[in-house]
Amino acid sequence: MPDTSRPTPLYHLYTGASALLAPFAWRKVAQRLGAYGVTPERQRERLGHATLPRPNGQLIWFHAASVGESLSVLTLIARLGEMRPEAEFLITSGTPTSAELIEKRMPPRCRHQFPPLDSRAAVDRFLAHWQPDLGVFVESELWPQMVVRARATGCPLVLLNARMSDRTVNAWVKRPDTAGFILSQFNLFVTQNQKTADNLRRMGAAPDRIRPGSNLKAVSAPLPVDQTTLQQMQTALGDRPLWVASSTHAGEEETVLAAHAQILKTLPDACLLLVPRHPDRGDTVETLIRDAGLTLARRSGGEMPTAQTHVYLADTLGEVGTWYALCPRVFMGGSLLEIGGHNPFEPAQLGATVLTGPGYFNFAESYAEMIAEGAAFEAANAEAIAARVTTWLGQSTELEVACAAATAYIARQSDHLDKTAAALIELLPAA
Question: Would you list the domain boundaries of the chain?
Answer without folding.
Answer: 9-213, 227-413
